[in-house]
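During data preparation, we tokenized the protein backbone, and the record follows.
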Amino acid sequence: MKPLIFIVDDDVFFQKYIASVLMVNNYDNIKSFNSGELCIRNLNLSPDIIILDHDMNGMSGTEVMKYLKAHNIKVPVIMVSGREDKELIANVISLGVHKYFKKDGMLVNKLKEYFSKNYSQTFSMI
């Protein structure tokens, strides 16, 4: 069964870009949300993984992680952000973030490596 992937980012272009990379690689069970609040409202769908932006309008990625931790919701989270703040990274990892990837030219390669290691499907580049 294909994993249910949540993409949570207030940048619709980024959502579509990551979704297209995943879909080309046969990861097509994707739900995209433009806010942390919408992600939380849809947790009843039981995502297998969440790709979560940090800096969003409304709830930040940190606030989403605090919610998940407070409600003992255990789902792997890959946080993506343009920020390289070591204190922020340490904080979100302490809240349960599985991986923290910078939004840069290496992001797709990092996602490829992550999915190749953690899911049985192969992952190719677009």
Observations:
- The chain has a mean pLDDT of 92.
- Residues 80 and 101 are 5 Å apart (CA to CA).
- Residues 5-118 form a domain with the Rossmann fold fold (CATH 3.40.50.2300).
